[in-house]
Write a structure and sequence with these properties.
- The chain has 267 residues and is α+β, with helices and mostly antiparallel strands.
- It is built from nine helices and nine strands.
- The strands form three sheets. Strands 1-2-3-5-4 form a five-stranded antiparallel β-sheet, covered by helices on one side. Strands 6-9 form a two-stranded antiparallel sheet.
- The N and C termini lie far apart (66 Å).
């Protein structure tokens, strides 16, 4: 019986431990059930190369854990902080992985993206006129049955320098891959750095986010040309849904973006 080794990292929903020499244990915290979605997605992506292999599901101290293939290399955010001159290649690798995800049919048991976004907009601290505007914008956007990661950014992509392998799937949904692309654009442009990020790295992120977003978008568009208006409509919806996450440092920027989009639409 293998027991968990040293802790390698942690997030809001789970902790990650070494598990033998070739695997990790992602152990979900009590009360979180993202392991169900993540296990479903990883089973569907088995041998795809775009995500780690799911090796086993275990229970320990009343908590559910997923035993995952241990991947080489750091996450892209760490690598960008260490070697910012590699931004072009890393943005291209992120786009290539995202395009591959968008070509995958989603497991039928995943939540519907449009319904998920509608619920988040209902919970967002928006003035009534902006809530109505974003709901109407969402109503005009397409359904879809493709796999959407829901939180794809450089911190959730591990890389050996040549390609990206995507981790952290508990927010996956069924939907339009353009919507998932728009979510990544939003995160690259405006996501506030995680608490505890050193000031120097915060400055590097602020300086490099526009370039990273532009290079990622260019690479994604090269693989799947999309009308900018369609991406922008999904971006409006995601900005409203992001407000439901309660990240104070982003509130003014996202609200202003939605308001400006509304005014432009009404001209």
């Amino acid at each position: 019986m293998i027991t968990a080794g040293p802790k390698l990292g942690e997030g809001r929903e789970a902790e990650v431990y070494a598990w033998g020499t070739d695997a990790v244990l992602k152990l979900y915290r009590p009360g979180y059930h993202g392991h169900r979605t993540e296990a479903s997605v990883l089973a569907a992506l088995h041998n795809s190369g775009v995500a780690p292999q799911l090796l086993d599901t275990v229970e320990t101290d009343g908590r559910t854990g997923l035993v995952l293939q241990r991947l080489p290399g750091p996450d892209m955010l760490t690598l960008l902080q260490r070697q910012p001159w590699r931004v072009r290649a890393l943005a291209r690798a992120l786009a290539t992985a995202h395009l591959a995800i968008g070509r995958c049919e989603a497991p039928a048991d995943l939540p519907d993206l449009r319904q998920t976004l509608a619920a988040r907009i209902d919970d967002a601290p928006l003035p009534p006129h902006l809530r109505t505007y974003t709901q109407q914008t969402l109503d005009g956007l397409p359904d879809g049955g493709q796999l959407c990661h829901g939180d794809l950014h450089p911190g959730n992509a591990l890389t050996d320098g040549a390609r990206a392998t995507v981790i952290d799937w508990p927010n996956a949904t069924r939907g339009d891959p353009v919507a998932d692309h728009a979510r990544t654009v939003l995160l690259l442009r405006w996501a506030n750095p995680l608490p505890g990020t050193p000031p120097l790295f915060r400055a590097l992120i602020a300086a490099g986010r526009a370039l990273t977003s532009r290079l990622y978008t260019r690479a994604y568009q090269a693989g799947s040309p999309i009308p900018p208006q369609q991406v922008n409509r999904w971006l409006i919806v995601h900005a409203a849904a992001r407000l439901s996450e309660g990240i104070d440092a982003e509130t003014a920027t996202l609200t202003r973006f939605i308001e400006n989009a509304r005014r432009t639409t009404e001209r």
